[in-house]
Amino acid sequence: MSVEAAPRGGGPGDSTAGDAKRYLTFTLNGEPYALDIFHITEILEYRNLTVVPMTPDFVRGVINLRGRAVPVIDLAIRFAKGATSIARRTSIIIVHIRGMPGSGDTGAGTVTGDGRDGQDIGVLVDAVSKVESFTAEDIEPAPAFGAGIRADFISGMAKRDNDFIIVLDIDHVLSLSDMADLVTALPAGAEGNGGADRAIRSS
User: Fold this and answer.
1) What one-character DSSP code corresponds to residue 94?
2) For the domain that residue 52 is a member of, what is the CATH number?
3) What superkingdom heads the lineage (predicted)?
4) What is the pLDDT of residues 6-15, one digit of tens each?
5) Which residue range forms the structural domain that includes residue 85?
6) Alpha-carbon span 59 to 13, nearest angstrom
7) Chain center to CA of 105
């Protein structure tokens, strides 16, 4: 079963009333994080993953998403915090990455099954919380140190009550060079329709 994310706007600069932008909040190792909802296409309940040999250690495997093999990365491993333990609320956030290295512009790349340029990537998290709106005044600059993950992974710190939520910079967390290497490592044809089934049968 999938849960559709809120409708996407025309670009990352889109805002709602009061210049607020919407972010999907989630937890990882008990800590709160947020992603700009513009990059998110849908949210899935955790499902079994097919392990693909010769991929980076933060890649937990691939899922068959409507006939396409979508790699799923473990953010905890990416942040050097150990592997995510699978539990009842474990979720996979599907993020769309536009452009690949050497493409010459941000719109080039592979074409997904629904005709969009780019690559879908699954992000494994402990639990999805809710969509929240933050204004520019709610978000402080990313700290140079002390957040527990690489500073370039953070776009800012959103204030909520008496705490902060780490707002991730998805373009750095899922760097295009890493994702291009990942897509290359998938079994031949896995990025096309029906390729996921071939990948699953061959593993």
Assistant:
1) E
2) 2.40.50.180
3) Bacteria
4) 444 445 444 4
5) 2-11+18-202
6) 30
7) 21
